[in-house]
Design goal:
Length: 483
């Protein structure tokens, strides 16, 4: 090869090698030195399913609170709430059960009496809230009303978490015979069975004068099958899977029940709204009902404060219990379809995210809206109670001055008499509520009504006796417990 060509070849080869090295250098420099990856925001979505009720507002408010907190750290929290109507309650329970068996479903759903909480607690599909509380670096079990949590505990596990709670109250019609009023007033608490017995005696001894009175105002007292459901739960030991429904106490309850509801069927329902009845309405109700049942939440004016005598048509308001003296919570008016204040977290869901959100929700739900103060309930977290009471009582003070004046028209508001006694009344009411909040609580209802509805109906029709009904219910429940 001529010398000149050889030099050209060497020069071209050298240039190519240099170009290759330069390219490699640029690639290495581009991959490591000039490229700085953009920070990636963390985005997490929480899915909730609930029957559409007014409390959805609080759920969204808690979602906004948590989203703002996350935004401060450069992260994104999203809340997806799926709601359904009352007409779809049964199908939604069935849908949820199918999803849970398939390992899917929402992160959180609202528990109702339509869900079989006892069965779900054994399924492995739900998260034990005790494990979430015990792992929390700040909170422990004593930060909550553990007696209320006990009502949702099965075999040591807490598979439903109540955000707030309230008690059921009953007051007696002050136009009834004095001996029955005194009998009622002698109680500091009163059981369903005792209420039924007093009503039965009213009909037996004074039926000629008072047989026009139904037993009680509001939903659960006017639906015997729901009334029975609470009594059934009293005689069941879920941890040991046994029942004692042939007990004389349950038979006595069924006997009195047939007297109290002798003219209605077991499935009969009567629903009236606005448990905060004004005094005009209270006067009307006193001509219709023997008892005034404050069925699902506290009613401050009627159950916690002493109102003026001229306006009292029902008095001596006291909490209702089961036959073991355990207070009844607001299950059947607020939980019969869907209780937006009692939550379950699925095992397949995001448990840590769910618990973080629930803590925001507890805070948001601790203070009722101004127009909801007479339907309030206590927060499950102890540290939130006093703020809730202060908020509620502040609105309670304004009610006689403003709400009643406009609502009752010609009837004079309480005025100065209320103002002078208000501070004392608040102190008494607070002491009562705090005392009640420490009492034992009846278990959350978990027994399906279908198990005993037929026997109650046959008893009302006179086909079987209360003793036979109790035996049939006992046998059926025992089989259900060991399935």
């Amino acid at each position: 090869m001529p010398k000149t060509k050889r030099l050209v070849y060497i020069l071209i080869s050298t240039i190519c090698i240099l170009l290759i090295f330069a390219a490699c250098g640029r690639s290495e420099e581009d991959d490591g030195l000039d490229y700085i990856p953009e920070p990636q925001d963390i985005t997490q979505t929480l899915n909730i399913r609930m029957h559409y009720v007014g409390d959805a507002y609080f759920f969204r408010q808690a979602g906004r609170s948590m989203a703002l907190e996350w935004e401060e750290n450069g992260d994104i929290f999203e809340l997806n709430i799926e709601t359904f109507g009352a007409e779809n309650v049964i199908s939604e329970v069935e849908r949820l059960n199918a999803e849970l068996m398939a390992g899917s479903g929402p992160d959180i759903f609202c528990i109702s009496a339509r869900h079989n909480l006892w069965r779900l607690s054994q399924s492995g599909f739900l998260t034990d809230f005790y494990s979430l509380i015990d792992q929390d670096p700040v909170l422990n079990r004593d930060d909550f009303f553990t007696n209320v949590l006990d009502a949702f505990t099965f075999e040591g596990g807490l598979y439903a978490f109540p955000l707030r709670f309230a008690f059921r109250f009953a007051g007696i019609n002050l136009a009834l015979p004095q001996e029955l009023i005194d009998r009622f007033a002698a109680h500091s608490i009163i059981s369903d069975s005792e209420l039924v017995a007093i009503y039965g005696d009213l009909m037996n001894l004074h039926g000629d004068e008072f047989d026009h009175l139904a037993m009680a105002h509001l939903f659960s007292f006017m639906r015997p099958i729901v009334f029975t459901s609470r009594a059934v739960g009293t005689y069941i030991d879920f941890d040991n899977r046994t029942s004692s429904l042939t007990d004389d106490g349950f038979i006595s309850f069924l006997t009195n029940l047939t007297h109290a509801f002798r003219d209605v069927s077991a499935g009969f329902g009567w629903y009236t709204v606005n448990p905060m009845a004004d005094f005009v309405r209270m006067r009307h109700l006193s001509s219709v009902y023997a008892f005034f049942s404050l069925d699902h939440r506290f009613n401050l004016i009627n159950s916690l404060f002493e109102t003026l005598p001229d306006y009292q048509y029902f008095g001596h308001h006291i909490p209702i219990t089961d036959d073991k003296g355990r207070l009844l919570l607001n299950f059947y008016n607020n939980a019969y379809w869907s209780n937006a204040t009692t939550l379950a977290v699925t095992s397949s869901g995001n448990q840590a995210l769910s618990w973080e959100y629930i803590q925001h929700l507890m805070q948001v739900m601790s203070n009722p809206a101004p127009n909801d103060f007479y339907l309030f309930s206590l927060p499950i977290k102890r540290s939130l109670v006093q703020d809730t009471l202060d908020n509620v009582f502040e609105h309670a003070y304004r009610l006689p001055m403003n709400y009643m004046r406009g609502f009752m028209g010609r009837i004079q508001p309480m005025g100065d008499a209320w103002s002078e006694s208000f501070e004392t009344q608040v102190q008494i009411a607070t002491e009562r509520l705090l005392k009640y909040s420490e009492m034992p609580i009846a278990p959350f209802p978990t027994v399906p009504e279908r198990l005993f509805e037929e026997f109650i109906e046959q008893m009302f029709l006179g086909i079987i006796s209360p003793e036979d009904a109790a035996q049939h219910i006992h046998n059926t429940i025992n089989l259900w417990l060991i399935e």
